[in-house]
Amino acid sequence: MIRVLVADDEAIVREGLVAVVGSDPGLAVVGTAGDGHEAVAATRRTLPDVVLMDIRMPGLDGVEATRRIVASGSAAKVLVLTTVEQDDVVLAALRAGVSGFLLTSVPRDRLYAGIRAVADGEALLAPSITRRLIESHVGASPTPLAAPMTLTERQADIVRLVARGLSNQEIADRTHLAVTTVKGYVSDVLVQHRLRDRTQLVVLAYESGLVTVGG
To answer: Is 91 exposed, middle or buried (0-12, 13-18, 19+ CB in 10 A)?
Structure first.
């Protein structure tokens, strides 16, 4: 059972998400929050696996709330579900420690899959914003924004596939490795570079120059 906290400042949206998430037998809503301060406090109190976070909230927005949740050492993964898709907002959310980003227009089965993916440590970005985000904030830089990543040849191959959005199963199929082996490689790289999850790994892969736009 995956424990979910729902944070949104609009009561009707919050109640709707609670109903939708709660209708999946593998998900359990353990709390709600109406702003960023409540989200931080509720995460500490209810210990969710995933926080469904809105970006635009009064008092303390979703980006800063995420930053505080991550800084607290919480194991909760933050999945942003919002109508906002401006590149600067997405990048700020990713840098704050968000593990996934979906638009509110996604069908409920995609939402369920997204919650499970994020809980399992997968990176998740809405397809409509991924390419534009990379081109605007990473690919446009003439030089890498971060130091080159120190990887073995096999690790580098797998990181490139992660950056292309492939799941562990898809990477396993492509490289003829076992899924557990792929997970092991990804986990080693996360630990080696002190990264929270695959989303941070993707950002670093582009910023370090390991992966390039269109490459």
So the answer is: middle
